[in-house]
Amino acid sequence: MFKTHLIFGILAGLFFIEAFTIPNSLLFLAVVAFFSVFPDIDSYHSKIGGKVKPISFILNLLFGHRGFIHSLLFGFVIYGGTYFIFGSTWAAATFIGFGSHLLLDSFTPDGTRPLFPFRTQINGVVRSNTIVDYALFFVFLAAVVWMLF
């Protein structure tokens, strides 16, 4: 789902850019895109986790895949840290990307535990790397292209 997460994050970022005045919108979109795939750093099998395997392995060992790193609590930690260092615009970019990732993951059978450490789980039926996943990717891609032109 890497590509689907990425394109959906970009779409979410474009909606935000359209709704608000964002200085340096290209950088804003890049931050959103990065954080749309960032939560999978807790899986060393993922594209981003594979780039930093030692860190990914440790995070997976500590929290498992779709544990703390895939929670709203972690999202608020990232948001707060970014807000404190870079300000509200960039904090919003991190949270939009991060939130878009959690939203898509909540549609998969494994789902997410957004209120981690509580056991409340949200899950769906869309499996990664299936025709539905690819269809969603192309729908999101078409929406991105439409918004750009």
Question: Which short descriptors sum up this protein?
Answer:
mainly alpha; 149 residues; globular
Walk me through the structure.
The chain has 7 helices and no strands. The model has no long low-confidence stretch (mean pLDDT 94). With 149 residues, it is an all-alpha fold. It has one domain (2-148). It has helices at residues 2-19, 25-37, 47-51, 53-63, 72-86, 88-105, 131-148.
Biggest sheet statistics: none
What integer value in Å does the Rg equal? 15 Å
Question: Segments where pLDDT lies below 50 for 5+ residues?
Answer: none
Strand runs, count: 0
One letter per element, helices H and strands E, the order comes to HHHHHHH
Distance between the termini: 26 Å
The helix fraction, in percent, is 55-70%
Q: What oligomeric state do these chains adopt? A: single chain
Strand content: under 5%
Q: Structural class of the helix and strand makeup?
A: mainly alpha
State the helix count: 7
Q: Shape, please?
A: globular
| Total of domains | 1
Mean pLDDT: 94
